[in-house]
Amino acid sequence: MTVPEVSRGSGRAWLLALLAGALLPGCESRTPPYRFPLTTPLEKSAASQPVRPDPASSAQVAPPVDASPTVEASTPAAGSADASARPVVAGAEPVRPEASGATPSDVHARTKAVASAVMAPGSANRPSPRASFRALPPTTERGRHLLSLGSRLMAPGGAVEDPCLEPTDTGCARSALTPFFAALDGLVAGTGEAAQASTVIAAFGNSLIAGDRIVDVVRDELVYGFGGAGRGVLLVDRMAPYGGRSRTAAVSNGWEPRTLGELRAPPHPFGITGVYHVATEARARGRFKLEGEPRGTLWWKDVKDAGRLVVSVDGAVLVRTEPQGDGASRTTSFDLPAGAKWLDITAEGRGAVVQGVVLQQDGPGIVLDMLGVPSADATLYARLEEDALKAQLAQRDPKLLLFFLGGNESKRLEWKRTDLDTVRRDLTALLRRTRAASPGSACTVVGPMDAVQDGHVKGKPLLQRPFLESAIAAEREVALAEGCGFFNLFAAMGGAGSLARFNQAGFMHDDLVHPRGQGLDLLGQLVSDALLKGWVEQGTQLAPPLTSSREEAPAWPGDGSAQTAEDVR
After folding, report:
1. Which residues contact 129 (CB under 8 A, 6 or more apart)?
2. What angle do CA 300, 10, 415 make, to 5 degrees?
3. Would you tell me the crossing angle of helices 468-481 and 420-437 to the nearest 10 degrees?
4. How many whole angstroms separate alpha carbon 197 and alpha carbon 546?
5. Residue 567 and residue 569: Cα distance in Å, rounded?
6. What is the pLDDT of residues 487-500, one digit of tens each?
7. Of 29, 330, 402, 499, which has the fewest CB atoms closer than 10 Å, so is most exposed?
């Protein structure tokens, strides 16, 4: 979504204050991310099981929305029926904790054993090409609460459109989301590459996700169903001097953030985080609380005369970078001793540049990297440096690229600062560029939420933002043509007028641009439900095969033929 854009200097303080609407939602309380995955007994009647929203039921009429915000749902207790979330294996003996107390690892091991048996060679149930054991994870207590909230807000949910990339006479051999769905199959079955390594999701986007609350709900839901493998990509400090620290160092000082969403291009290009932090003083430091990670990675910019960066654990130096001053983006990896508690990244002098820090566990599970930046759109993502993009995406090896874009594009269309041809061209270039750097990944574009017109008068009816639906149609067209999935968040939250209902319920900030609280949670739940439903139903409701050539779009901006990021103001 868009926030006011200003140049550097005196305007930067104003920008930081106004960005609070984008990032402060991430500070609010939410369900803790770790929950024990347990399997629901199969003999329970279907009527007694909570279900995720069905896109086909969008025609139902919802009761009026209460004008007061709803109280946050409580966290389900580990081991309770409400905490059940491991995908159910059809026809298998139910996996449940014994009265004596089975551990999560015991439950996970039994689930994998059953799934492996289903997939064994010669089995009548061997899945080909779609895993026969796929089933929706039961809905958590928070999920049921958000489902109820969505009904009251008339948010019907929706499905991810999944175009067929390899049609056959009898169906589809491979769809856009096959790499991601196959990785989920591997996590459930405990077989293949997914059983040995983490399944990474890289979420690019704008301020809608920059506070990490929407994607945190997606992260929680997937970790709840498939296990987790740690935090992934983190920042050495926050993107502004406020907001939560769930995706940053626990304590930081002496850093200045620069983002690709700034009006004028900063002096250095960016890695995939879209953010870098510059040391404004000697001994600038970011301190991370370790969670048993065996190793880590530091992404940094080799800036001339910037001095070294020091990586230390519990006061002991692990490694120092050796800058060459050539401006390249570099990677420094390090092993972490068992039992280490604190990791420090320290700049020896002013000017050192940190792009990010990677911390995650060994072994299988979901990792979701939040790579959103306030004010970002597909055009501004031209500021990603090619070498850093290739190297960092290769290191992360995501199985799904998620793009939350369209809010800023629709606003800039309204302001006549861009046009639909530019929107199509720059999104096409972004998808091609990231997919070329990560050829084994699936990709999905999540369209913008409902938005109202700029300049509305308080007390007057809210008017839908011009070009919103045109921007959504353009993004869908590009996504499907480029072999990516598409999720229409605008339709899933209820279409035209849904923002007014969110606002009436107290789930919008005063700018009427950025959701807050459970409004953000509900949007995250809509996305996670759509991904899970797409996994279960892959092959049953595919989008049409590709009909347009992927060779028709122009090259990425930078060849002189496209509008530059500086032109968007």
Report:
1. 173, 174, 539
2. 90
3. 40
4. 32
5. 6
6. 999 999 999 999 99
7. 29
